[in-house]
Every structure is written in structure tokens, then in C-alpha cells.
Design goal:
- There is one protein chain.
- The chain is α/β, with parallel strands linked by helices.
- The chain is built from 21 helices and 10 strands.
- Strand 1, helix 3 and strand 2 form a beta-alpha-beta unit.
- The longest helix has 29 residues.
- It is elongated.
- It starts with 14 loop residues before the first helix and ends with a helix.
């Protein structure tokens, strides 16, 4: 036998020993399973968001970046579906490639930026939409990895490409995103935003924007699409105009505290007393008016805010530049023309029961809804110098009161069971705050306001007085109006809230839309 060889004797174990060993193995397995389950459970806790997964769009993006011609690129960690390349060309004159893939980490930003710089294109602008929270998760929630990845895969490009303007748009989520966080998680997330801003602000070719503290944007669920982060096409286009064109909502280390203060105040207010508006889902609201109602599409128009906050079905027939009086040349779609068109083309039942065209272009089931017309004119009547009234003909549609009186009478005849609300214009800074007269009769802006009040009383309509009873006053016009006439987003939200609150508090029960529709088809009822 070789001296280094050793015989090892294996002694058979007893049945009890084998049983004990098996039980031990089972217990150990159970502990491992329980530990893994607990770990998975902690990973799915709402305070630790799950990392995004690949959407399969990266390869096509990289191919486009290599083969196409462009002068700007948009990269984002959230969906870019509602950023339209033609909008960048139209508003900024830049042939822009919008990447479809939602980037997952700084490494992917680096990969995309490398491809852009090697494409041979003369790129002047790169729009970046990083999410600080997602970048933190991608860095394993490790501060050293976070800073290293930012420097290596993100900031190094800002430094090495001084001739390119980098516009960084931080996320602007729906308020519900912040309300789901406890105090510690909120502080930690805002610290990430602060840290990223400080890193990027060091580069002179980099601009940083954060619209996420704006109430008009974040408290309206109608502004958002599928997630807390994805806004609809109207809001996305508005962000392009506000941020990338006008430079609004720019955030710097100097004004950053104001942004976080405003956001925290909104969160604190919503936690203490959540915004609640009347449920108007059983109402169909039809708007007639001028550019105050008609200039802005979608969810951040006055009808759009009403829909988003109250679930009312809204239909917007307002047209920019129109008046209640019919213009002398007769070539504008003023209120009399709009009512002609409405009654001729839009109140005839179709296979779907209606030919109304919803503002958001979606199909709406109107059966069983109550019907209300909201009418708002006066600015253009005053600006154009239309007479307030023709004393010889109260139904003269070339006068302000005559146009209102005629059109409301026609609508009431067609829809006798509907509710009617007349709205006055707000204050204006135009024509020396409305003190000038623009016609030979000496009519001033206040005369048109009084005319709306008188017609409301005469026709049995409700009145929303946006001139005397509104938060918008002559002293605060700059806070609510974009140009002394048209309300900005904050002003439109204020007017919409007033409409909702007024309807909740003042409208008496009316018959359903179906009854009003039936009556319109058979006036003899």
C-alpha cells in the first residue's frame, strides 16, 4: 500500500440520524425561502420603486441616430410618445430626433450621446429628461456609485461639448406621486433633485428646468395620461413651448429653494385638505365664447380643467376673435353664426345619438346627462366698438345685447329644459383698463359687463360674474392674465374652479340631457 494512501471507512448512519438530517435540510430550505420572500416583499414596497425594464426600442433608436440627419435630439427616462418631432421643427426650427426608448441609467445616456457625437451631424441642442430617483436606483442607491456614474456617463459630455446647448427638463409628476411618499422618502427624493441640479449647474452650456411645482399642472389629473409622469399631448406641447422655447421654469441654485418651498406647500396642503371638486359627471357642458375659452386646447383650457377636475363632459364651440354681436361684414363665426351652425349641424341625432364633437375627440355617452350651455362674450364686442344695444330693435344681432338675446332665445327654444349660464369677462388692462370708448355711443367696458348681467336676468339664465366676483381683480392682473386680456394657466384654472363651484352651489335640478334632446326634436311637447 502506498504510504500516502489512506483507507477511509464510512460507517452507515441509523434511520433516526437520517431522518434528523432530512428535517434539518427542510428547515434550512424553509428559512432560505422565507428570507427570499421577505427580501422580495421589501423590494416591492411603495417606498422603493421597481426599476424600469427595457421597452425594446433601443436598437431602432441607435440605428436612427447613426443614419438620419438631425440638428437636435431628445432623450428621456420616461415615455416620449407625446413629444412630436414636427413641433420642434415648427416652434424651434430644429430638425429634432425624439428617441422612443425610455433610458434606464447613465450608461444608456452615455451610449446614446456617443452615437450622436459620432453621427457626423452638426448638433446644436440636446434635450435631456433624466429622473433623479431612477438614476439613484440604477446606481444601487449608493452615493459613491451615483456620483461616479453622473460624472462619467453624463456630466463628462456637458464638459466636452461646450458648443452644444444641453436643456435638462426634470420630471413634473402628478401630485399623487408625491403624496404616496412618507416624510423621509420625500426628503430623500428632493435631495436627489437638489444633488443633480448642483452637479449640472456647474456647466455654462446647461440649462435646467422644473415645472413640477406648478399647481395648474400637477393637481389636474386630466393633464396626465397613463402614469404619474406622462402628460397628454397638449401638456407636452405646452412644456415644449414654455421650457424649450420661452425658458420658463428655469431652476438655479439661487431660486431652487423657492421651487421646493412651493412644491412642499402644495404637498402639505393636499395632505391636510385634498383638493376636491364637485362630481359633475352627470352633466354635459356646451361652451360658446371667444379666445378666452377657445385659444387653448385640451386639458389646460377652461373647459379642459372643468373636465379634469369634475368629470363633466365638455364641448367647446368657442372661437378666437369672435363676439356676441355679428360683425358688420358678416365674415366672422360670431355667436349668431355659431348658433346657426350648431343648430343646423350639431343637434341632429346620428347613429350614436349626437353629432357634438368633444374637445378631446373621444366618444362620450351623453344619454342621461343634464345639459348646460355656458356663454362668455364681451371682449371683442368692446374692442370692435359694437353698440351695446339698438334701442329701436332689441333683437338686432349687430348689437351686443341683441346678439346675446337672439342667440340665447334660439337655444332656449331648441333646448327648453337645459340650464344656461352667462359669464362676464374678467378685468382687462386694455384700453386703459376699459375706460376708453371705442364707438360713437360712448360705450365703455363696464357697459358691456352690465349688459351681460341684464341679459342673464332677462332670459332667466344664471350669472357668473368674473368681473366683480372673481379672484381676478384689477390689482392682480399680472398674476392671472398672460397679456392683460387672456388668462394664463393659473387664471384658467381659477375660472374653471369657479364654474365647478358655482354649478355645485347654484344650479337647480334640471331634466336629463335625453329629455332636453327629445324636446329639441319635438318642440310641441
Amino acid at each position: 500500500m502506498h504510504p500516502l494512501r489512506k483507507i477511509t471507512r464510512i460507517t452507515p448512519k441509523s434511520p433516526f440520524a437520517r431522518m434528523a438530517a432530512a428535517v434539518g435540510l427542510l428547515l434550512a430550505a424553509a428559512v432560505l425561502i422565507a428570507t427570499f420572500a421577505l427580501h422580495r416583499s421589501s423590494q416591492s414596497d411603495s417606498s422603493i420603486p421597481i426599476l424600469q425594464t427595457d421597452d425594446g426600442k433601443k436598437a431602432e433608436d441607435l440605428l436612427r441616430l447613426s443614419e438620419e440627419t438631425y440638428s437636435a435630439v431628445l432623450l428621456s427616462m420616461h415615455s416620449t410618445a407625446n413629444f412630436r418631432e414636427e413641433d420642434f421643427l415648427h416652434y424651434r426650427g430644429l430638425d429634432t430626433l425624439v428617441a422612443a426608448h425610455a433610458l434606464l441609467n447613465t450608461e444608456e445616456f452615455s451610449e446614446y450621446l456617443d452615437r450622436i457625437l459620432k453621427s457626423g451631424n452638426a448638433v446644436s441642442d440636446i434635450y435631456l429628461c433624466p429622473d433623479p430617483d431612477l438614476l439613484w436606483k440604477a446606481a444601487g442607491q449608493n452615493n459613491r456609485s451615483w456620483k461616479k456614474s453622473l460624472k462619467r456617463d453624463f456630466c463628462s459630455y456637458l464638459d466636452s461639448c461646450p458648443d452644444i446647448t444641453f436643456s435638462v427638463l426634470l420630471p413634473y409628476p402628478y401630485i399623487g406621486y408625491w403624496l404616496e411618499m412618507d416624510a423621509d422618502r420625500l426628503d430623500a427624493t428632493l435631495d436627489l433633485y437638489h444633488s443633480l441640479i448642483n452637479e449640472l449647474a456647474a456647466y455654462p452650456n446647461t440649462r435646467i428646468f422644473f415645472p413640477g411645482s406648478q399647481d395648474w399642472l400637477t393637481i389636474n389629473p386630466g393633464n396626465y395620461a397613463d402614469t404619474f409622469f406622462d402628460t397628454n399631448v397638449f401638456i407636452t406641447e405646452s412644456m415644449l413651448l414654455h421650457v424649450f422655447c420661452d425658458g420658463d421654469y428655469a431652476i438655479t441654485p439661487e431660486n431652487e429653494k423657492d421651487y421646493w418651498h412651493n412644491l412642499r406647500e402644495t404637498i402639505r396642503r393636499e395632505q391636510a385638505s385634498p383638493t376636491r371638486h364637485a362630481d359633475l359627471s352627470n352633466w354635459c357642458l356646451v361652451f360658446f365664447g371667444d379666445s378666452v375659452l377657445g385659444n387653448y386646447p385640451g386639458s389646460f383650457s377652461i373647459p379642459g380643467f372643468v373636465t379634469g377636475l369634475s368629470d363633466a363632459a365638455t364641448f367647446n364651440f368657442a372661437v378666437s376673435g369672435t363676439s356676441a354681436s355679428n360683425s358688420r361684414n358678416g365674415n366672422r363665426p360670431d355667436f349668431p353664426c355659431a348658433v346657426d351652425d350648431f343648430l343646423a349641424k350639431n343637434t341632429t341625432p346620428s347613429g350614436d345619438g349626437t353629432r357634438f364633437t368633444p374637445e378631446n375627440a373621444s366618444e362620450t355617452d351623453l344619454a342621461g346627462k343634464k345639459l348646460c350651455f355656458l356663454i362668455s362674450y364681451g371682449f371683442n364686442d368692446y374692442f370692435d366698438g359694437a353698440p351695446v344695444e339698438n334701442p329701436r330693435d332689441p333683437y338686432d344681432i349687430h348689437s351686443f345685447k341683441g346678439g346675446l338675446r337672439t342667440c340665447i332665445s334660439r337655444l332656449q327654444e331648441a333646448f327648453p329644459h337645459a340650464a344656461y349660464i352667462l359669464m362676464t369677462p374678467t378685468h382687462t388692462s386694455a384700453f386703459h383698463y376699459g375706460t376708453d370708448s371705442n364707438n360713437e355711443y360712448g360705450d365703455r367696458f363696464s357697459d358691456y359687463i352690465n349688459a351681460v348681467r341684464e341679459i342673464a336676468e332677462e332670459t332667466g339664465s344664471f350669472l357668473i360674474d368674473n368681473y366683480s366676483g372673481s379672484v381676478i381683480t384689477e390689482e392682480n392682473l399680472d398674476s392671472y392674465l398672460a397679456d392683460g386680456i387672456h388668462p394664463n394657466e393659473t387664471g384658467r384654472l381659477a375660472i374653471a374652479c369657479r364654474i365647478i363651484d358655482f354649478m355645485e352651489n347654484n344650479l337647480c335640478p334640471v331634466q336629463t340631457f335625453l329629455s332636453a334632446w327629445t324636446a329639441a326634436q319635438d318642440p310641441g311637447q
